[in-house]
Amino acid sequence: MNPDSAGQRRKLAGTLFILLTAVLWSVLGLISKYCMAQGMLPLECAFWRCFFGCAAFFLHCGLLGELRIPLRHALLFMAFGVWGIGVYYSCAQFTIKLVGAAMDIILQYTAPFWVAVFARLLFGERLTPVKLAALAIASLGTVCVCLSGGSLPDKSSSLAWLGIVTGLLTGLCYASHYPFTRWWQRRYPAPVIFTWMLAGGTLALLVVTALTEPLHFAFSVPVWLASAAMGLLCTYLAFVCYGEALKRISLVRAVVTCELEPVLAMFWVWLFFGEQFRSIGWFGSALIIASVLVLSLFRAEK
C-alpha cells in the first residue's frame, strides 16, 4: 500500500471522528431541553446522563480487563467525580433550564480561561502575551454574554442571574478536568479514569435526588431514549470518537474542527426552540469562541 495513500486515509478517518465528536456534543443541549420540556427535572437529566454514560464505560473497561485498579485510586476518582461530573452535569442542566442551552455552551467555553490559570499554578506554564490577550478577550466576551441575560425567547426570568452563575460554574468544573486527568493519564488510560469519575458523579446525584425529590420513572419511551442518548451518545461515544481522532490527526486540526460544536449547538436550539441572544450576546459569543481558538492553537503548537 502506498504510504501517502495510507496517511491520507488515516487523516480522513481522524477528521470524520472529530466531526462526529463535535456533532454529538452539540446536540446535548437540544436533547436536554426536550427531556425537561417533557417533565424531567434538571437533576434527573444530569443523573440519567451519568448513569447511562457510566454503564457504557464500565462495560467498555470491563471487556478490556481494565477495571481492576487500587481501591484508593478508584475512591479518589469517584471523589473527584462528585465535583467534576456531579456538580458539572447538574449546573449544565440548570443553566439550560434557566437561561438557555446556547448560554450554557458559551459559558462552558470559558473553561480555557481556568485551564490557563491551572496550568500556571500547577504546572508552571508561562502566561505569554498571546495567552494574556486571549484571556482578556474571553473575559470581555463573558461579560457581554452575561449582560445579554440569556438565550431563551422569554428572558424575563427572575432567576436569570442564577443561571449565569451555574453556567460559569460549568466552565470551572470542565476546566478542572485538565489538571486532574493530565496527572493521572500518566498511569491509567483515560476511559478508566472517566469510568470511576462517572461512578462517583452518579452516586452523588442519586443521593441528592433522593434527599430532594425521588426519581420519576413515568416517562414515555421517546423521553427514555433521549435520556439514554445523553449518556451513550453525547458522553460515551463522543469521548471514544475524540480519542480515536487524536490517534490519527494533530491536536491543532482536532481543536479547529471542534470549534464547530458551539456553532452547531446554538443553531440546533435556535432552529427547534427559538433561542437567540441579543446583539451584545452574539458579540460576546464570537469573542469567547475566537479566544478559545487562539488559546487552543497556541497550546497545540507549543
Description of the molecule:
The chain has one domain. Helix content is 81%, strand content 0%. The longest helix has 29 residues. The mean pLDDT is 87.
Would you spell out the secondary-structure blueprint of this structure?
Elements: H1 3-26, H2 28-37, H3 42-63, H4 71-99, H5 101-108, H6 111-123, H7 129-148, H8 160-184, H9 190-212, H10 221-246, H11 251-258, H12 260-273, H13 279-301
Helix pairs in contact: 1-10, 1-11, 1-12, 2-5, 2-10, 3-4, 3-9, 3-10, 4-5, 4-8, 4-9, 5-8, 5-12, 6-8, 7-13, 11-13
Continuous helix count: 13
Strand content: under 5%
Shape: globular
Note the run of SSEs as H and E: HHHHHHHHHHHHH
Number of domains: 1
Radius of gyration in whole Å, from Cα?
19 Å
Derived from helix and strand composition plus strand pairing, the structural class reads mainly alpha
The number of distinct β-strands equals: 0
| Biggest sheet features | none
Low-confidence stretches: none
Helix share, percent = over 70%
Mean pLDDT: 87
Distance between the termini: 33 Å
